[in-house]
Specification:
single chain; mainly alpha; 2 domains; two-stranded antiparallel ribbon; 5 helices; 2 strands; flavin adenine dinucleotide binding; GMC_OxRdtase; oxidoreductase activity, acting on CH-OH group of donors
Length: 184
């Protein structure tokens, strides 16, 4: 709905354009996920806590300002690049292009780019926040491993795909070792 309000007219007119999506590679805000109860069929509670650390919102505004500098660069001006002044629904009461406007915009327009990590932290059994050991075995549950991005303690400064493949390859080697399936 928000997308249609902001960009529907552009789509209908088939106008050319581009979008710059600044993002925070190392957010300071952190959420949590936990079970509601012992019923495995109940959905977990997910508390993303986006922008719980003010730094993330401040750096987002700085990134938007940098993107606007790029649009104003002479090379971009040669192709008539410019910022479309379409107010974000929910932010119309703020002065367009002010820092307060971009903070509001960021709260409405930000999305995760689907790189969630860290929900099943790797660590020793004595760490109360650790879920898996160094061989990716879930503490206290025999025969269960976690082999995905959730064991990463932090978001990598790049796409999560390659590190996840690396985790899976290492897990495959460890499983073969544990089952004495290693060929020498």
């Amino acid at each position: 709905e928000t997308f249609q309000k902001m960009f529907g007219e552009i789509q209908r007119k088939s106008l050319s354009g581009f979008t710059i999506f600044p993002l925070i590679l190392r957010p300071r805000s952190s959420g949590r996920i936990y079970l509601k109860n012992s019923n495995p069929f109940r959905y977990p509670v997910i508390e993303p806590n986006y922008f719980s650390d003010p730094y993330d919102l401040d750096i987002s505004v700085k990134a938007i300002r940098k993107a606007l500098e790029i649009v104003e660069h002479p090379a971009m001006q040669r192709i008539n690049a410019h910022l479309l002044q379409i107010p974000m629904p929910g932010c119309e009461q703020l002065e367009f292009n002010s820092d307060d406007y971009w903070r509001c915009f960021t709260r409405y327009a930000t999305y995760t780019i689907y790189h969630h990590v860290g929900t099943c932290k790797m660590g020793p059994r004595k760490d109360p926040t650790a879920v898996v050991d160094a061989r990716l075995r879930v503490h206290g549950i025999k025969g269960l491993r976690v082999v995905d991005a959730s064991i990463m303690p932090n978001v990598p400064a790049g796409h999560t795909n390659a590190p996840t493949v690396m985790i899976a390859e290492k897990a495959a080697d460890m499983i073969k070792e544990d089952w004495n399936m290693v060929r020498r």
